[in-house]
Specification:
71% of the residues lie in helices and 0% in strands. The protein has 182 residues and is mainly alpha-helical. The chain has a domain of 113 residues. Helix 2 runs antiparallel to helix 3, helix 3 runs antiparallel to helix 5 and helix 5 runs antiparallel to helix 6.
């Protein structure tokens, strides 16, 4: 989320008191930390990627296969942001405006899913198209929730910055008014 959360707590020790052997190298190193996956942002990104994948599979099996590109792209983008947030790439790559990219991704995904879901349900009669439309509506809700939360976090962050600027400007104004009264 924005501003970036501090480092998540490491996984707690097992009940036995000590860890059994060294960490397993390989693919497990690529998996996001459990603390991130249990956070609200992690859950939203998991839901976005899961619903996008299910919607993609439904569109592949349906007669509305013209719509399969949008869920595939959203699935890949959700996976990218999942791993980027989990690996804290937003801290490493400061040149990119991560909250704005995530916000725009969620807004466009919600709008596109809403439009293609309405079309899939209204225009096509097969069951896979109807299922894709229903999963698309669920994905619309998840993406809309995500962009609402991102917007609130960014607005809160900007409001904190504005209040600090106002305080500095107010102090400067008081100092200037004190010097004029002498």
């Amino acid at each position: 989320m924005w501003p970036p959360d501090p480092d998540p707590d490491p996984d707690p020790e097992p009940a036995g008191g000590s860890r059994p052997g060294p960490a397993v190298p390989g693919l497990r190193a690529l998996l996001p930390a459990r603390a991130f996956l249990c956070s609200l942002k992690g859950r939203l990104l998991l839901a976005e990627s899961g619903l996008s994948f299910i919607t993609f599979i439904c569109y592949v099996a349906s007669s509305a296969s013209a719509f399969l590109t949008a869920p595939l792209l959203e699935f890949l983008l959700a996976l990218y942001f999942l791993f980027a947030d989990a690996m804290q790439l937003n801290d490493k790559w400061q040149g990119l405006c991560w909250p704005m990219m995530d916000f725009l991704r969620c807004v466009t995904a919600a709008l596109i899913y809403f439009a293609i879901s309405i079309t899939a349900i209204a225009k096509y009669s097969d069951g896979a198209s109807k299922a894709a439309g229903v999963f698309g509506f669920f994905a619309t809700i998840v993406f809309a929730t995500d962009f609402y939360l991102i917007f609130n976090d960014v607005a809160k962050f900007l409001k904190q910055g504005d209040s600090a600027d106002e305080t500095t400007a107010h102090k400067t104004e008081e100092e200037n008014s004190d010097s004029d009264s002498d």
